[in-house]
């Protein structure tokens, strides 16, 4: 059992280092790591989302107090908004996962997650628990605590409404329940067969705050200055925290550095109270380990003799320390400190160990070339015993000379049965509020282990060490220089469909062409390809008897569908399948690859079965030409094209009186006024467009401490509030049932608000001038009706509309009522007598 525990702890520690570019370090960094060897304490910070964590406190814990610091985010932030692109849902969660890992690489903490899905803003803890399955997520929190074994647990939020979000308060409730449950052998006993044991943290505290309109700080709380300057690092913890927090780029959380005193406040909630220091009564030296009394003097001597200019001189003593650690009883701190010591030995030796592939994709049934590079840069007494690359073990028994490169290459065959690189929490169909993960040992981890790894067995000062490196794709960008990306295992061919949605009008018989694209990830010569299109009522197959496709190229197959085939169905899906055969092998294919690329994080890939959503609906449209001003990123313009409109994307230079005249409506993308400074300059031009008979439709903009509107928006006074309706099933009231927006050209009924996803509206308008009409009202359970989700005003000959209705979510999801209502909003101004 103890051996199992040691392995679990090792794998838990090193996961965060996979799939990153090789890290650089200085002698000062090594010195700090040496000091950390004498500290055996840990702290776990718990909150709900990426960016909820206190990076200043985490940096202080990890780099000043030298604790193992961890952040447990219940969710991956899937339901948030995106300032840098149009990704939503799981795509956004993948981005925010990597942003958190980037933040942790800066502040020095470790990162963990539960299986909870961020389903969007929640106003109550009860709603969050109902959707998440409270017991399931509680078990995850307990699991992380039992594995990480924190001495203290810190919550970001209180358990009540002051948290401001049901997920926030829920994270505090779960942390407190897990504080007790993790120590109870009768709670979640199924976890013990995986090597964990009951664990009781010393205390749990709430890190109180003063932001927004909520001040939870009081004089009787524990007060700690975490703003110190670290001369070893050359930075204050406020500066480190700013770098860390600024990694949350998708949320627009870039912040300035802070220097000087920075106080954090803590309210005791359970366990042994802390009187003077957060770490009161916690034993965090070697006396907590049996036999550890001989370890501390060895570390202190290494620190005394450490040379910044010649760190390699410390290697013999570090190897002796490693051997002494081996003699200790198995346990958390033995394995943790052995791992840390091995890393420091590697750093002091100046060892460069690299395994890189010549392609980003490792294709099932194909081969990749892997280059191995080794350099003993400081001349440590080191012998390279062997290198293990999957099925190859190369025995070398070669002495590593000082600063000499040792390079060689190998071809690795990728077994066709080797699993593709799918984020582990996306391998199975998710439930409404949580991901499905069957493997207990994966729960809590931030990401997958690498697709392939290389083992370097090196003897240093007579002791054998195994150093593991993820095999990564290495390339040179002409602007950014040498880069590394995760190596991804992919199928030999990927299958995608186009377009994402087809809209048929029930009132007439219609046809549409849809495309199935096969993309080759390896060379195909003399294959037979069977490409099939499947719907509920009709299947068809095209046979390509001479399928030839070079790696990296694609081939399209066009099929025709009609609403006549749908019969009584209001919606359907077109699914795509392919079979490729050459007489020797048959390869089924149906998965599409999604790639997400931003410069500040590693490339992201995942796989799914692509499909075309087909809607057969009663949809009428009036008007033809739409001008669209992009905002922070959405897919509304694509939906407009699918509705039959001609959409022109407008740049700043296009927003002129003469150019706008041609459009039946001008629509601004989500948060357009937040991200486009030129909107203030174009206010008069847009108002003149409305006055002369145009229709300006403004989708939601935010008003908060990171993103504000610096321009007037409407022709009459209005403010943007933070009011929202988060229950996507909430009742919608028709306050002006005869208003054209509810009647022309589509008759809007309650049924048009069925099937909405995540929420109804966000950042609704408030404090409206009497000139604005409010045809709708809605509310979350137990709250007063809100009228600001759709506001309309006449101005001159035209119309102005502000809407917080979440069309940016509903249209890509294929919600029929959202299409019908948007068509009516566009048709409000019938200036051209359509």
- Distance between the amino and carboxyl termini: 77 Å
- What top-tier CATH class of the domain at 41-284 fits best? Alpha Beta
Number of strands: 43
- If you average the pLDDT, what whole number results? 93
- Please list the strands of the largest sheet in the order they lie side by side: 3-2-1-4-5-11-8
CATH topology of the domain at 41-284: the name is Rossmann fold
Share in β-strands: 25-35%
CATH superfamily of the domain at 41-284: LmbE-like
Helix content: 10-25%
Count of individual helical segments: 19
Concise summary:
With 834 residues, this protein is of the alpha/beta class. Helices cover 22% and strands 30% of the residues.
What does this structure look like?
By secondary structure, the protein is of the alpha/beta class. Among the domains are: 244 residues, LmbE-like (Rossmann fold); 125 residues, Sandwich (Immunoglobulin-like); 207 residues, Rossmann fold. The protein is 22% helix and 30% strand. It is built from 19 helices and 43 strands. A seven-stranded mixed sheet has the order 3-2-1-4-5-11-8, with helices on both faces. α10 packs antiparallel against α11.
Looking at this protein, list some descriptive labels.
834 residues, alpha/beta, Rossmann fold, Immunoglobulin-like, 7-stranded mixed beta sheet, 6-stranded mixed beta sheet, 19 helices, 22% helix
């Amino acid at each position: 059992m103890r051996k199992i525990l040691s392995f679990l702890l090792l794998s838990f520690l090193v996961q965060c280092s996979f799939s990153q570019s090789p890290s650089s370090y200085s002698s000062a960094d090594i010195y700090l790591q040496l000091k950390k060897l004498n500290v055996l304490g840990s702290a776990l910070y718990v909150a709900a989302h990426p960016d909820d964590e206190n990076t200043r406190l985490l940096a202080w814990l990890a780099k000043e107090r030298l604790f193992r610091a961890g952040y447990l985010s219940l969710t991956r932030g899937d339901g948030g908004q995106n300032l840098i692109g149009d990704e939503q849902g799981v795509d956004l969660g993948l981005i925010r996962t990597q942003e958190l890992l980037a933040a942790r690489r800066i502040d020095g903490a470790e990162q963990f997650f539960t299986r909870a899905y961020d389903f969007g803003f929640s106003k109550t803890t009860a709603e969050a628990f109902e959707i998440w399955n409270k017991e399931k997520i509680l078990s995850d929190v307990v699991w992380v605590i039992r594995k990480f074994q924190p001495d203290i647990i810190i919550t970001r939020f209180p358990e009540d409404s002051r948290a401001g979000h049901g997920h926030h308060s829920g994270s505090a409730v779960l942390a407190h329940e897990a504080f007790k449950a993790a120590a109870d052998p009768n709670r979640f006993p199924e976890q013990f067969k995986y090597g964990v044991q009951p664990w009781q943290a010393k205390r749990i505290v709430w890190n109180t705050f003063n932001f927004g309109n909520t001040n939870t700080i009081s004089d009787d709380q524990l007060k700690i200055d975490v703003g110190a300057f670290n001369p070893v690092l050359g930075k204050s913890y406020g500066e480190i925290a700013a770098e860390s927090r600024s990694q949350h780029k998708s949320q627009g959380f870039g912040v300035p550095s802070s220097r000087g005193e920075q106080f954090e406040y803590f309210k005791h909630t359970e366990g042994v109270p802390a009187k003077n220091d957060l770490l009161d009564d916690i034993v965090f030296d070697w006396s907590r380990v049996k036999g550890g009394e001989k370890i501390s003097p060895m570390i202190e001597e290494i620190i005394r003799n450490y040379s910044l200019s010649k760190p390699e001189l410390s290697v013999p003593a570090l190897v002796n320390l490693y051997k002494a650690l081996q003699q200790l009883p198995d346990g958390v701190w033995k394995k943790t400190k052995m791992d840390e010591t091995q890393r420091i030995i590697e750093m002091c030796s100046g060892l460069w160990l690299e395994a890189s592939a010549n392609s980003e994709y490792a294709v099932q049934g194909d081969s990749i070339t892997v280059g191995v590079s080794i350099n003993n840069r400081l001349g440590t007494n080191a012998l390279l015993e062997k290198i293990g690359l999957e099925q190859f073990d190369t025995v070398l028994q070669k002495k590593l000379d000082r600063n000499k490169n040792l390079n060689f290459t190998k071809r690795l065959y990728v077994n066709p049965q080797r699993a593709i690189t799918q984020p582990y929490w996306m391998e199975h169909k998710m439930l409404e509020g949580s991901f499905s993960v069957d493997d207990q040992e994966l729960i809590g981890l931030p990401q997958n282990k690498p697709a392939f790894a290389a083992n370097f067995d090196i003897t240093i000062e007579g002791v054998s060490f195994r150093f593991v490196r993820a095999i990564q794709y290495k390339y040179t960008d002409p602007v950014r220089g040498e880069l590394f990306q995760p190596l991804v295992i992919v199928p030999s061919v990927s299958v995608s469909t186009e377009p994402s949605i087809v809209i048929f009008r029930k009132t007439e018989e219609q046809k549409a062409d849809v495309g199935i694209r096969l993309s080759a990830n390896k060379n195909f010569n003399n294959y037979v390809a069977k490409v099939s299109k499947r719907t509920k009522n009709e299947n068809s197959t095209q046979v390509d008897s001479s399928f030839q496709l070079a790696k990296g190229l694609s081939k399209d197959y066009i099929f025709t569908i009609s609403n006549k085939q749908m019969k009584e169905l209001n919606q359907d899906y077109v699914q795509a399948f392919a079979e490729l055969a050459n007489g020797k092998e048959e390869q089924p294919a149906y998965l599409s690859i999604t790639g997400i690329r931003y410069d500040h994080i590693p490339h992201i890939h995942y796989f799914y079965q692509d499909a075309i959503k087909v809607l057969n609906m009663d949809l009428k449209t009036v008007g033809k030409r739409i001008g669209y001003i992009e905002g922070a990123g959405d897919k509304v313009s694509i939906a407009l094209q699918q509705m039959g409109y001609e959409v022109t994307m407008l740049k700043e230079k296009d927003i002129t009186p003469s150019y706008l005249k041609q459009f039946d409506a001008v629509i601004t993308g989500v948060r357009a006024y937040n991200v486009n400074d030129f909107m203030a300059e174009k206010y008069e031009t847009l108002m003149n467009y409305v006055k002369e008979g145009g229709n300006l439709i403004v989708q939601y903009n935010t008003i908060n401490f990171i993103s504000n509107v610096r321009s007037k928006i409407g022709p009459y006074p209005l403010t943007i509030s933070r009011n929202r309706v988060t229950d996507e099933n909430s009742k919608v009231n028709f306050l002006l049932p005869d208003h054209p927006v509810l009647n022309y050209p589509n008759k809007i009924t309650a049924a048009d608000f069925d099937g909405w996803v995540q929420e109804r509206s966000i950042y609704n308008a408030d404090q409206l001038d009497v000139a604005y009409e409010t045809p709708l009202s809605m509310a979350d359970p137990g709250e007063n009706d809100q009228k600001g989700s759709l506001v309309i005003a006449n101005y001159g000959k035209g119309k102005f509309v502000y809407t917080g209705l979440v069309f940016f979510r509903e249209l890509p999801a294929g919600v029929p009522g959202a299409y019908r209502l948007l068509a009516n909003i566009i048709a409000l101004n019938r200036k051209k007598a359509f």
